[in-house]
């Protein structure tokens, strides 16, 4: 069985993994990252999105062995010192969730889309979140939350 080294939310792990084990199952079932949900297991819904070496990926579409040597950030590792990440706070303040199942993936995808465009238009946000499905909200508050999160993250960078 292959042994992989992986950093998750700043913690280093070495794990023996079946070659066919999916990253999302490693995260949830072995490493306690149950904040990353499984909505479909077929790469459709985006609920399982995490950051892999700084880019968002659907962790149900990545094998654990492919993440060997990588740095993973899940929704549980976003905040610092018990505080929410600005994008998490924006989702909270804009009421951008109902059941909350899609929210971890939405937040990760939203942060990723700001890497290319720190001040995205509504259209850019909607395109950037195309791979993340929400079955409750109708997306309006999600778009508002991403804009608000983008503003707060921009201010956080500009404020010394
Ligand atoms: Fe991975 Fe739906 S659980 S995309």
Automatic annotation (TrEMBL):
Annotated signal sequence range: none
Domain 2Fe-2S ferredoxin-type: 2-78
Domain of life: Bacteria
InterPro entries: 2Fe-2S-bd, 2Fe-2S-bd_dom_sf, 2Fe-2S_ferredoxin-like_sf, 2Fe-2S_ferredoxin-type, Beta-grasp_dom_sf, Diverse_Oxidoreductases
MF terms (GO), sorted A to Z: 2 iron, 2 sulfur cluster binding; anaerobic carbon-monoxide dehydrogenase activity; metal ion binding
Pfam families: Fer2, Fer2_2
Annotated protein name in UniProt: Carbon-monoxide dehydrogenase small subunit
Enzyme Commission identifier(s): 1.2.7.4
Pathways involved: Alkaloid degradation; nicotine degradation
Keywords from the named record: 2Fe-2S, Iron, Iron-sulfur, Metal-binding, Oxidoreductase
Keyword Lipoprotein included in the entry's annotation: no
UniProt organism field: Nonomuraea muscovyensis
